[in-house]
Amino acid sequence: xxxxxxxxxxxxxxxxxxxxxxxxxxxxxxxxxxxxxxxxxxxxxxxxxxxxxxxxxxxxxxxxxxxxxxxxxxxxxxxxxxxxxxxxxxxxxxxxxxxxxxxxxxxxxxxxxxxxxxxxxxxxxxxxxxxxxxxxxxxxxxxxxxxxxxxxxxxxxxxxxxxxxxxxxxxxxxxxxxxxxxxxxxxxxxxxxxxxxxxxxxxxxxxxxxxxxxxxxxxxxxxxxxxxxxxxxxxxxxxxxxxxxxxxxxxxxxxxxxxxxxxxxxxxxxxxxxxxxxxxxxxxxxxxxxxxxxxxxxxxxxxxxxxxxxxxxxxxxxxxxxxxxxxxxxxxxxxxxxxxxxxxxxxxxxxxxxxxxxxxxxxxxxxxxxxxxxxxxxxxxxxxxxxxxxxxxxxxxxxxxxxxxxxxxxxxxxxxxxxxxxxxxxxxxxxxxxxxxxxxxxxxxxxxxxxxxxxxxxxxxxxxxxxxxxxxxxxxxxxxxxxx
Length: 484
Known about the structure:
By secondary structure, the chain is an alpha/beta fold. The protein contains 18 helices and 24 strands. 50% of the residues are buried.
């Protein structure tokens, strides 16, 4: 039975790092993880051992202490790793049943939503020690070999590039629209690149749109132009330069909870959120949970004929025989909804068991209806300390008009018909294929990564990544770290 011993730096809740000694022991039947001689994890089959080569520092890493997962932990998930033959791999981060290649009756894995498997661990975020350590246990079917013509500098960006592509495809820019990327930096610059790729294809078929980069730093704006932005706007802390600006869609990549209010003010059709900063924003406490579950906020349809015609959101989102709607608002539901959906009424925590025990479709509500920020938060995380959502992954929370609601986000959704969308992990294979086939995209790492650090310099890497002088920092494992 192989055994690996190594030292790594744990990230702690006080945002400091502490050295810890890890032991990984196991084989194809399962693995155990010990930290400082104490059992930490017992993993079943479906994991393989890889040596870390490099790992990027992202906004989620910097905000890890705000996320609802236990610390300390070896974090880091934007990884390149190698096997015992020296082959390079990137690793999709969600250790679901599907990614491990193990049989299960998981409704989420069966429905093609393995990244939302409730029993998954997540590399460097939840449970599994991540890429800032020299060795990793990763899901066997989540390892994708890096093509020979893709350099390390680009391969280390596959995870955020895949997420950027997923965001753009979810948003689906329309011909003639003006799309703004708020805060193009680590992830945002890759969103600009993904938008530019979609725009280039659209121009050939008459589907052109504009890409605006909005940032404080003029150097970032100049860089955004090289990534494909068609216009740039420099903003200050008060966003005064945006007073007369309007965009069809705004993609918030800032990682700053205050930025969402600006995005809501500027967007006409949709705000798309990519930030998992773990902090309250726009009156919501569970915005990060919304992004993790890839939920949307939409206006409750005020036209009865939508329900009868089958175009209402609960019809579009249903996963079982009948659409399942959780009505959390105090006002009564319309008769048209009662006729066209299986509806339950009450507080989210009380309704949750009736959905988790459902035998057809996904064991969640297809959508919830709310009128207050507290009801929205409850729909996202009905039970404190539990990461189970009332609404299915990629479902919607429908917002009723409420003149007394102070949240500018909910007012914009209910009154203006603004949609708030979100997305998380993307398709690594698609991202790798694009990189392998585009020599210019293969240079994204050269242009985006401004600082590199050895693994022992992790504290300095985080300090630099938080500074305005850094666009992207990467931690490299320059020496063998561990012994078998």
